[in-house]
What does this fold into?
Amino acid sequence: MSVTYVSSDVLGSTVLLTDETGSVTAQYEYDVFGSIIGYTGTKETNNLFTNQEFDPESELYYYNARYYNPTLGRFISRDEANLGHDGDVISRNRYVYVKNNPMKYTDPTGNFVKEEQDQIGTLSQMMAYTKLLATETGYYKLSGNFIFGYKTEGPFLDIGALTRKIGGSTIGTIFNERFNGGGSDSGNDSMDKRYIYTEMAGLIDMKHFFQLMYLGDVFWNSFAVDKGIEHEETAENTSKYAPEDTTSNALGAYFGSTYDPSNDKVDDFISDLSLFLSKLGPVDFNNLSKNKQNEILEFYSARNEDTGVPLNQNFDAIPEYNEKAFPFNVDDKNKAKIVDTIDNK
It folds into this structure.
């Protein structure tokens, strides 16, 4: 009985078949979307581009949930597991393959699970990214005098500029929207790692966190929470009270209302923010078992097939999905609002 060994590229695509002697028995070459543009050899396999099963008769790949046409770079049926995300136009196309970026992403299930997973970072990654943006948007001060000389100190945190950089709204936009129906502040609206996963709060959407942190700091906790609820009430069906939203909002509003960033250096802000998030038990999502990862992704991405509404909506600050007890107390009258830590009660 002959033995065949498979060699793959970084995407998991089969590129070489070799026998027990190490001799090459087949070689495959693909274009970026998976069409076979080169083949030589005497052996064949059906597990080809990203290790998915290829049907030679239809020239389609089977991606478990759907069939994929590599010539078009599109699935031939729509994605039923994910209806897209606010601010992400490409994700609204439910036939698109890996956000039109096959050099970076793969899609082993036929849905956008892998793409979502790539947006979940570690606490250290999130803090490094936040520090980069806070430094870029921060400001500096001169200290000293004419006799002994001057020196530059900083960078200091500009919480409004940081919020705008992340793509959030600041005071001018909030009141413009309220009275004139205006748009949002301009920001880059792109966070390379938007989420962190924690044992006590589940998945945290840091874009929601930072927006509510700003409102909690500039106004107060209750105001920020109410604005978060207002946003959820007017959101599209696919994101209305998504399971991570209310918890992320509550955490950001509470942190912002209890933290005074005035005249604070960026390093001090990052240290305090990291300490706050560390209380939630952050873990490296990629180090979890595949079964655990899939369980988490399915919980947070599940949508009603007909309406698109999240199946696991959450209206309270306390998360629906967590492995350990939530370390904060919530308001008896407004369950979406954190009032203090359990240790402080």
Observations:
- Confidence is low (pLDDT under 50) at residues 174-189.
- The chain has two domains: 5-114, 120-344.
- DSSP finds nine helices and 16 strands in the chain.
